Amino acid sequence: MSGIARVLLEMGYKVSGSDTELSDITKRLESMGGRVFKGHSPSNISKDVEVLVYSSSIVKDNPELEEARRRKIRVIHRAEVLGELFNNKKGIAVTGTHGKTTTTSLISVMLKNSNMDPTVIIGGEVRQFKGNAKLGNGPYLVAEADESDSSFLHLRPLYAVITNIEMEHLDHYKTLDDIKASYRSFVGNLKDGGAVFYNQGDANAKDILKDFHGDSESFGLSQDADIYPIAVKMVGFSTTFKCIYKNKLLGKVTLNIPGMHNVLNALATILIGLGLGLDFNAIASSIKNFEGARRRFQLRYSSGGIMLIDDYAHHPTEIRAVLDTCKNWKNKRLVVIFQPHRYTRTKFLADDFGRCFEGVNKLILTDIYAASEKPIKGVSIKNICDKVKANGIADIAIVDKNDIAEYVIRLKRRGDMIVVLGAGDIKKAADDICEKLERRTLDKKLISELKRSAKGQVRVEEPIAPHTSFRIGGASSIWVEPADIADLKRILMFARTHKIPVFVIGNGTNLLVSDSGFNGMMIHLGSPFFKSVRIKGETVRVGAGFSLPKLIKLCCDKALSGLESLVGIPGTVGGAIYMNAGGSANPIYKNIGEVAASLKVMDYSGKIKRLKGEDVKFGYRRSNLGGYIILEAALKLKKHHKDVLNLSCTQFMAIKREKQVLDMPSAGCIFKNPSNFQFTCGQMIDMLGLKGKRMGGAEISPKHANFIVNKDNATCKDVLALAEFIKKKVKENYNIPLEMEVKVI
Question: In the CATH scheme, what architecture does the domain 444-528 have?
Fold first, then answer.
């Protein structure tokens, strides 16, 4: 309703309305010139009202409906207004039991990013639109088509997407056949030249299209679909897959909203884009930049090892999809709050609700949100509670909605994933939980102040895993990329003033991050300023943020020798110098510290110093630079033949490929080799027969025993458990205490 109201306001109509509760959405409508009343009353309908529009949740004896009829004001359903808008545009309607909002949002953002300026009406708020609707000047209108009461039959779209069809809305439909009949009528309303895009894995969707004679294409997870994914990888909020369309590989897709159900939503979006003639790379770019819709696996809070997720899921299938997605975060205690929506749904789907919470550690239930329904005798939250208990979940509590936030704050602990589910007013509980959690972390005003004072990028709750070679870890409370040296100094002063812990990260190649992330500020010298490189004679001056592999190639191409034994070592120049990275195959320059003529550094008070190479104490995989941030290095190299250097790089790389693990996420050697001992760490671990040993998703590499690899979405906890196991075995058998080479934060 608010989406239609917004579009009508933007079209120049005078709009007023009423709701049981006022919200940010209603405030936004008022700021646009609309008028919104709290509560329903005949007096809300002013003398100049010509049309009253109502939604499916409004009961027949609503006082405003009765007043409109008494005054002979035209009364029409929301879908009729949407239908009128569709008739004047090329409509793209998204319908189905689940996934409508996300799919509609993805399509809308895709068209917006393709400069097609669509009109959009969505059931959830999208960040890119700063709301749930917008009026566009382009030819297309994208909207959700509400199947709940067959009102989508008012629409005559050009394109239709059917995400899935299930038994639902049993207050309106009597049988599944009734539901299918409604969908058949819906696809029969398509305009000439239109098409249907449907979920190939949904038997009901396929069934309703048996007698459909128009154009159609399918999306799905199997090769039977016209478009399907391969090589799907899910880590945290990020999902990547390669897209096959009609037996042709289109390319890679990155989706920053998690879950296999969202892979399907993305595939439907790609089909629409291809149908409109858009380039696949442009479609994929739009999907990658999509920031999600509010209350669709929305991350509300992440700090101190605690995550808060808010989701609209209210049907057993949706709940299962959300909880399956939660498995992307291993070893989290799963605390779920659920508010059932409607008495009819609770009555008819109680058995399914009883089965859908598998894997939940703590379940908090609250009273049914009635929507427009009257209570049904014998139907209450206890129905679901009993069914869940019968399916083996013992830790359940029924809590009054207004007490949920305080209850959760009391029981929360580090490592919790708190998930709030429901389509009613349970969002208020999510808001309250979030507010109470945020009081214990960095103040929002503090973040705003930092963003105002910093020239570079500032991001909150930045996932760290993608910034590391291990692909492990939670989020950083603050992530900052300073624009230049002056900006870095301002940021350090800000952190010092507000007592915020600071960690400087390069490319994260020697780093293992806690599953709970870093509760402080991570500084990454990723801006162009810190990636400069200047060569004069045999001296190379290079910024700390410059890629070490790129520098090695550049120096070899310039016939400068001294770095070639470091080939294959990832990371930045600053990180390599800080850890004195080395290449053991080179008999002359085994460590980068040996070619570091001087360094430009900043201490954590913001003071800049220049250090000569001899002032720095380099050791095996260490230096005494812990109190400094490396800004720039001057490296003293030697002239040599370009072809010889490139051949050396090839030879060194071949040795590393043979002996080391370069094709799996890891942080390199996990332990430092002990001094004055005849065996390396890798040899000791190998002789103990530990290659291939796994704990959770972490594995001792079968290729190099001093590498722990992220084999299957490993957690920090998995890696540390495996490392402790190795240390214990080596101590027992060789009496050697191993020291971690990888830095753990």
Answer: 2-Layer Sandwich (3.30)
